[in-house]
Amino acid sequence: MLEDLDLLSDRIRQLTQLLDGAHAEHQALAQRLEHAQADNQRLRALLAMARDRVDNVLTRLPDPDAPPPSQTAAEAGHGTA
Question: Structurally, how many domains does the chain consist of?
Fold first, then answer.
């Protein structure tokens, strides 16, 4: 009977150690998740800023599909060949 109680006590001690380890791992993972979410938010903000900058540059570029500026009548008659 005492042997059974000792075995049960050992098992309970093992389970307690496993639970403590799982709890510590859970806390570490929760902290890593929090940091990853903060990094993700920061990177999304940087991406939005970069997109805004690219859009700003694109609005200043000439339209590649637009016809070339028309020549004046004087230039058309006096070409430089």
Answer: 1
Average pLDDT over residues 63-74: 73
Establish if 20 belongs to a structural domain: yes
Closest CA relative to residue 76, chosen from 7, 68, 33? 68
Rounded Cα distance, 16 and 62, in Å: 70
Q: Phi/psi class of residue 62: alpha, beta or left (left: φ > 0; alpha: ψ in -120 to 50)?
A: beta
80 pLDDT higher than 70: no
Q: Is the pTM of this model over 0.90?
A: no
| DSSP one-letter string for 15-47 | HHHHHHHHHHHHHHHHHHHHHHHHHHHHHHHHH
